[in-house]
Write a structure and sequence with these properties.
The chain is α/β, with parallel strands linked by helices and 182 residues long. It has seven helices and six strands; from the N terminus they run H-H-E-H-E-H-E-H-E-H-E-E-H.
Length: 182
């Protein structure tokens, strides 16, 4: 009986150790069918603001993603399809999650299993409204959350922001308008 318990304990320990990847391994992981990589970066809000401000693209879209939000889960594949199909990108897509490092594995799995290969920035804040307040002072934080975005022009001025009142079709229409798809 004691040997049986030891064998089970060793099996469980070995499978959990080998099944989990470290954060560094995950950052460099690739899908076996392509050379695309899941890109997740843990950054401070100040660093993220610098990245957005330094972008020389005509338009910048900042999208709030969460694998736990139905609106985000519904809109992300539509956004990714547009992002992925644009051959000439005169815009930059910044995807952020405010869940922080504690949700790294869940976010990675969500991106990997759905095949989303856009860069995602993790910003550790208690909620998306705090991040939005720091990133976009002219945005209406009260109505915005995961599954929504705001867009800035090349001068980092607000073009549009979406909120929970926008349908998926309206969000898509706005994205297409921003990046010049008819």
């Amino acid at each position: 009986m004691k040997n049986y318990f030891i064998i089970i304990a060793l099996y469980l320990l070995s499978t959990s150790v080998f099944a989990q990847k470290s954060e560094n391994q995950i950052k460099n992981d690739t899908n076996f069918n392509s050379q695309k990589k899941i890109q997740i970066s843990n950054v401070t809000i100040e660093t993220f603001k610098q990245l957005v401000n330094k972008s020389d693209k005509k338009n910048k879209i900042i999208y709030f993603i969460s694998n736990n939000c139905s609106s985000s889960v519904e809109f992300t594949p539509l956004l990714y399809e547009i992002y992925n199909n644009q051959k000439t990108k005169d815009f930059e897509l910044f995807v952020i999650s405010t869940k922080g490092k504690n949700h790294f594995d869940k976010l990675y799995n969500y991106l990997f299993y759905n095949g989303y290969y856009f860069p995602v920035f993790l910003i550790s804040k208690s909620n998306s409204k705090e991040v939005l307040k720091e990133l976009c002072s002219s945005c209406q934080q009260k109505f915005m959350g995961y599954g929504n975005f705001f867009a800035l022009n090349e001068f980092n001025e607000l073009i549009i922001q979406t909120d929970f009142n926008f349908t998926m079709e309206e969000k898509l229409e706005q994205i297409k308008k921003i990046i010049g798809i008819e």
